[in-house]
Prior knowledge:
Layout: H1 3-51, H2 59-64, E1 81-85, E2 95-99, E3 108-110
Antiparallel strand pairs: 1-2, 2-3
Amino acid sequence: MNGVQQILTHFYVNVALGILIVCLLTVGLFVIRSLISRTSKSHKEKKYKESSKGLEVTESTIINELNDKGDMICPRCGSKLVLRTAKKGDNAGNQFYGCSAFPKCRYIKNL
């Protein structure tokens, strides 16, 4: 093997290692983001359970529950529900409660 072939071999090995490292970092970041997402969701659930004063929490009680400010709470993510009016489709003009975290959370409660 001559000198040029050795240089090219080392170059290709280093490129392959670099690609492998980038792939591993990308997967690692994805895992970290998903763990952070789960942690923040469970934190909201814990916060809501603490404020429910030990009562059994179901979807119907969450919809009827109000937070400290008197706002209704989304059963999926714990955010505030806001009164909205449908602008398109079969329900145009009808009002409903929608999650304030839209589009991240698409929970709605028809009136």
